[in-house]
């Protein structure tokens, strides 16, 4: 899962959403340095990633891209899934995506001191380019993928990844819808029964 899905799966919890958003920049037990709700979000992010990486639907979709993109296939599938979430946003949330995105960007700005340096550095670009709403269209997703490809000096080939998205669009969207339903149920179960409740 990529940024939008992780934030969405945090529910209406501001600090959990921030933790979920920054989690990839937090190593090992560094999460203990953060406020409790941010810790919760970081651990929830890790749980979501573990569930996703072992799920047969996600693994099947990733396998489709491995021949061309190698280990970048996982990143690309996560981006595809954020696209499908953004495209079908009204099925998941009552607030328009543009408003939801703007509120989250404001939350990040208001909690800027909590963000790792890496996040602080790209936050202005993320807000200016409005990444969350970019995910909504294939062209917007393509732009973000191209930016990511530039950071790998073209090694990832991600700038071409909308080709497979278009070719397998119907199947990939159906896979996302099924997978995400199961992921949402898993997140609810985890939050009800896991060690997170002790944080």
Question: Could you describe the 3D structure shown?
Answer:
The protein is an all-alpha fold and 199 residues long. 70% of the residues lie in helices and 0% in strands. The protein contains eleven helices and no strands. The longest helix has 25 residues, at 169-193. The chain starts with a helix and ends in a 6-residue tail after the last helix. The model has no long low-confidence stretch (mean pLDDT 94).
How many beta-strand runs?
0
Cα gyration radius (Å): 16 Å
Helix-strand sequence: HHHHHHHHHHH
Taking the sheet with the most strands, its summary is: none
Mean pLDDT: 94
Structural category is mainly alpha
Q: Per DSSP, what share of the residues sits in E-state strands of 2 or more residues?
A: under 5%
Helical percentage: 55-70%
- Shape annotation: globular
Give the number of helices: 11
Low-confidence stretches: none
State the gist of this model.
The protein is an all-alpha fold. About 70% of the residues lie in helices and about 0% in strands.
Helices, strands, pairings?
Layout lengths: L2 H6 L5 H9 L13 H19 L1 H14 L3 H15 L9 H14 L6 H13 L1 H4 L3 H14 L10 H6 L1 H25 L6
Give the key terms.
70% helix, 11 helices, 199 residues, mainly alpha
């Amino acid at each position: 899962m990529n940024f939008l899905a992780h934030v969405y799966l945090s529910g209406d919890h501001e600090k959990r959403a921030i933790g979920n958003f920054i989690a990839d920049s937090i190593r090992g037990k560094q999460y203990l340095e953060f406020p409790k709700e941010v810790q919760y979000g970081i651990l929830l992010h890790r749980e979501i990633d573990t569930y996703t990486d072992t799920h047969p639907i996600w693994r099947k979709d990733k396998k489709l891209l491995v021949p061309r993109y190698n280990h970048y296939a996982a990143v690309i599938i996560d981006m595809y899934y954020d696209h499908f979430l953004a495209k079908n946003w009204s099925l998941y949330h009552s607030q328009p995506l543009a408003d939801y995105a703007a509120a989250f960007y404001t939350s990040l700005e208001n909690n800027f001191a909590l963000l790792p340096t890496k996040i602080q550095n790209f936050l202005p670009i993320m807000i200016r380019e409005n990444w969350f709403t970019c995910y909504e269209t294939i062209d917007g997703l393509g732009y973000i993928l191209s930016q990511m490809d530039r950071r790998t000096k073209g090694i990832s080939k991600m700038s071409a990844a909308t080709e497979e998205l278009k070719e397998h669009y119907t199947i990939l969207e159906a896979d996302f819808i099924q997978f995400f339903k199961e992921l949402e149920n898993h997140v609810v179960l985890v939050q009800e029964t896991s060690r997170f409740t002790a944080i």
